Amino acid sequence: MAQAPLAIVVAVDKSRFAVSDASRAIQSMLLTAWADGVASNWVGFGGLEGVKTLLKIPANLELLAILPFGYPVGVVGRGKKQRKLLGTVAHRERYGQPFE
Known about the structure:
This protein has helices spanning about 20-35, 50-55, 85-90, and strands at about 5-10, 40, 45, 60-70. The protein is an alpha+beta fold. The radius of gyration is 17 Å and the shape is flat. About 5% of the residues are buried.
């Protein structure tokens, strides 16, 4: 992340829908970047107080994520993925009833 040519820091107020709204915006940024061949990832979920201090983000805002952007060094997204079986991650009607 330190070598990324661009990083967007997403901070939110502590209102009711802030995290939900910001998460949708983050997803849109990531999908748009990847569609244009720019790699990115959501970095965050805690432990970002040092970044908040470094960037002098006000106390009334919560740091939600950092999105580094850059062109991948190698080919990305090709080849067979090692995915879990659907029945191990999805359930039918109730938890514990595998979706197959």
